[in-house]
Amino acid sequence: MVSSPRSPKAEISASGLTRKRVAALSENELLAFIQSVISDEQKMEPFYVLDLGVVADLFDMWTSNLPMVQPFYAVKCNPNPDPLREMAALGSNFDCASRAEIEAILALGVLPDRIVFANSCKAESHIKYAASVGVNLTTFDSKEELEKIRKWHPECALLIRIKSPEISGARFPLGAKFGALPEEVVPLLQAAQAGKFTVSGVSFHIGSGATNFRAFEEAIAAAKTVFEKAAQLGMPKMHILNIGGGFSAGPLFTDTASVVKTALQKYFFNEPCLEVMAEPGQYFAESSFTLAASIIGKRIRDELRQYWINDGIYGVHELFAVRS
Ligand SMILES: *Cc1c(COP(=O)(O)O)cnc(C)c1O
């Protein structure tokens, strides 16, 4: 729910209050804050509280566990300007999927070289826009995409997006839609070579809401074979590895980070100039937002107490069932 854009009605801007705090709120402080908003403003509509202290803690956690991996926050995960501004101030870069997302980030004063246009199927008008504002790194996974890029932004540096092995147990696998199959990689690299594109590296996404972080190891291994194939084709040396999103903020994060570190060491130990980037979305958005909603209906059916709240995934009423 936190990752879907909210209607303005369902949000209040609590930033004036939360921004003063440097540390994340404890559960009791958060509850007290929510109570105060409800009583001060007689608020019955659902609203979110964004704890900027949590965002900062997550950023610290990222840099201490994965210092060699530069985060590009996936804007689509929550494009609310408050977390975007905070992420920019903390030094994050950004993964934008559309013109609107690029505009939102540039409006914060972030330079275009801190943005990756990480959508491997872009609208032509958005590619043209990226060229006009100097966003010079994007992904591709088809020859058709290369054609569009040739037309509107031929100087753009490219990352070939590969389909990552489907072992991540992701709630939202992305492989059906995005990523070159292993047998498509060489023909795509050849097409890029023939078109005189700059292919700077490889990108993948193990899937959102992943549970099996070994997927990172397999995907990093697969990316390494693409680096080797490019070298065999005589292409200029690749130097960027984009390990995508799929991170979660809970206790699993340190395990995930160590899988990533070990795999980088194992497969890329001989690439000292490698730049590693990632596109965490839910990692930053998931636990920094808390939704407060009111119970607006109840009934007992089949020994279940059922409650309705005034918020839901489509912005409509959602039912919570609790066994009595
Ligand atoms: C959605 C998406 C992300 C963010 O994924 P999370 O699982 O939320 O971390 C990153 N990169 C791309 C290309 C995406 O489509």
From TrEMBL:
Entry-linked Pfam families: Orn_Arg_deC_N (PF02784)
Enzyme type, top EC level: lyase
Cofactors demanded by this protein: pyridoxal 5'-phosphate
Pathway connected to this protein: Amine and polyamine biosynthesis; putrescine biosynthesis via L-ornithine pathway; putrescine from L-ornithine: step 1/1
EC number(s) from the headed UniProt entry: 4.1.1.17
Recorded catalytic activity of this chain's protein: L-ornithine + H(+) = putrescine + CO2
Highest taxon of the lineage: Eukaryota
Keywords: Lyase, Pyridoxal phosphate
Any single Gene Ontology cellular-component annotation: cytoplasm
Transcription among keywords: no
Record PROSITE patterns: ODR_DC_2_2 (PS00879)
GO terms of molecular function: ornithine decarboxylase activity
Gene Ontology biological-process annotations: putrescine biosynthetic process from arginine, via ornithine
Boundaries of every Orn/DAP/Arg decarboxylase 2 N-terminal domain copy: 55-285
InterPro entries cross-referenced by the UniProt entry: Ala_racemase/Decarboxylase_C, De-COase2_CS, De-COase2_N, Orn/DAP/Arg_de-COase, Orn_de-COase, PLP-binding_barrel
Similarity section: Belongs to the Orn/Lys/Arg decarboxylase class-II family.
Record text on subunit structure and interactions: Homodimer. Only the dimer is catalytically active, as the active sites are constructed of residues from both monomers.
The protein's name: ornithine decarboxylase
